[in-house]
Description:
With 144 residues, the protein is an alpha+beta fold. The chain has a single domain, classed as Jelly Rolls. The protein is 25% helix and 36% strand. A hairpin with a 2-residue loop joins strand 4 and strand 5. The termini are far apart.
Amino acid sequence: MVGANESGGGFSLVEHPMPPRALGAPLHRHSREDEYSFVVEGRVGALLAEEVVYGQAGDLIFKPRNQWHTFWNAGDEPARILEIISPAGLERYFEELGNALSSSAEPDPVEVGALAARYGLEFDLASVPRLIQEHGLRFGSEPG
């Protein structure tokens, strides 16, 4: 919605719509940005280091850089967050990832990992089954 060019590099604003009970991302951390997730609709859960928090419309969830975290739709209705990412730049990761995923039927894990590393991102892919089980979620085509 707002990128580095529009904000002078200070922040980006990204919208994340989430279907019911959907995990937004594997457990991850980024070394360059802080994230502020404003819940626009629905109920959103987040794991921040070892703490689970929940937010609903009007709540703000802070995810500081270098902290392992993830987020999910914790309800049975669609949820939507506006994510303020500061400083800007990570929005380019989402664009590049979208291009990589749309250009092939099966994404190359090495290519996706290299893309994440260029943006200072680390993922804990092994966290996905545990998060799905503990919070009754689905991820991608995984059943909830």
